Amino acid sequence: MAAAACRPKTPRTVAASEFKAKCLKLIDDVAESGEEIVITKDGSHTVRPVPYRNRPKTLFGIDRAKLEIVGDTVSPPDVEWEAETNPERVLNP
Q: Which residue of 53, 66, 75, 79 is 20 to 30 Å from 17, comparing CA positions?
């Protein structure tokens, strides 16, 4: 049962003649729902229009709207490090 949930949904198929008659509506449907369609010609798959997605010019800052900075990120922390309190300690003898 779990394998069925993981299986990708089969895209809707449309004959080329139907696509020609309903082209603008089908394009709007794909853009709105994000669901792909497959256009067939003589019973074989010919093309698959998919929704257009704008790609960012750079990935730098792509998640800036998802992150929130809480507190002071510039000042040093208010804890004393063990390396400062005992400089004689060797970590890997």
A: 53
